[in-house]
Amino acid sequence: MTLKNIRIGTRDSRLALWQAEQVQQLLTAQGFPSELVPVKSEGDLDLVTPLYAMGVEGVFTKTLDAHLLSNRIDIAVHSMKDVPVQMAQGIVSAAVLQRASYKDILVVKDPEVLHSFTEPHIIATGSVRRRAQWLNRYPHHRIDELRGNVQTRLQKLADNDWSGAIFAAAGLERIGIRPGTAVDLDWMLPAPAQGAIMVVCRAGEQVLLEACAPMNDTATAACVHAERDFLSALMGGCATPISALATYNGDKLVFKGSVLSAEGKEKIEIEEVFNAAEAAAAGRLAAEKIIAAGADRIIAKLNRKG
């Protein structure tokens, strides 16, 4: 194929469009013309049903997958944490951009809340991972369901009697709306690949793969693939409270992972350091270690409940 005009598929939220525009700018810098093709996903249309009740896997990506496979777009841009570890047949990764912040943040209405967590509070999130980690740390708090794009969720926080709500730092920071009342949750492990942007295309589209290759950040790609390998080996998805973070310290890959029960009462976590020769297998090796520590028992319980 010739690259006359690359059609970039994206969800139509403000954040998704921002991410797609970054990819568009990188393509423009290489001399490739392109256009954005906004698409509304199932996850964007239904803002009431909790994500865990929607099947979750691919809820934000499968509409764009269909557009790719039917040749209505040439590439798609995703928040990588939304992409199923088993991607749709015929679709491959073309690039992983340099990662932004991987952290979760708490946005509060009143900064005084930050000094009173020993008291009962209502915290909002639509993530089972965030819910489980929060209740593990603050079992006397209540968690309410929160769905929608970042602007919608901030408005819901303002309109409800919640003490705070949990967001991904990258989502708010990328579009410049991180409130002054936000604090980093340094103790909360992120979702695998949180903060990373992934570009995908149809398998075999060599010209597109070559066009996207320069925007791939190899260090980010290695870290997030280790995190996703960990998730895959544990056979978990967005409906399972599985967290993972891989970072480089020199030539060593430091891997942290955890598995929690739905209400946070049980928690198993690991931290391992892998040398350069082991880095490619770090996610799988970490999964084996956390399974040996009993994580498979927690996951089996979650699957039976699901």
UniProtKB/TrEMBL annotation:
Catalytic activity: 4 porphobilinogen + H2O = hydroxymethylbilane + 4 NH4(+)
Porphobilinogen deaminase C-terminal domain sequence ranges: 222-291
Pfam families: Porphobil_deam, Porphobil_deamC
Pathways involved: Porphyrin-containing compound metabolism; protoporphyrin-IX biosynthesis; coproporphyrinogen-III from 5-aminolevulinate: step 2/4
Entry cofactors: dipyrromethane
Protein's GO biological process: heme biosynthetic process
Keywords: Porphyrin biosynthesis, Transferase
MF term (GO), any: hydroxymethylbilane synthase activity
EC code(s) of this entry: 2.5.1.61
Domain Porphobilinogen deaminase N-terminal: 6-208
InterPro entries linked to this entry: HemC, Porphobilin_deaminase_cofac_BS, Porphobilin_deaminase_N, Porphobilinogen_deaminase_C, Porphobilinogen_deaminase_C_sf
GO annotations of cellular component type: cytoplasm
Subunit architecture: Monomer.
Cited function: Tetrapolymerization of the monopyrrole PBG into the hydroxymethylbilane pre-uroporphyrinogen in several discrete steps.
Family matches, as PANTHER family: PORPHOBILINOGEN DEAMINASE
Similarity section: Belongs to the HMBS family.
Protein name: Hydroxymethylbilane synthase
Organism: Taibaiella chishuiensis
Lineage: Bacteria, Pseudomonadati, Bacteroidota, Chitinophagia, Chitinophagales
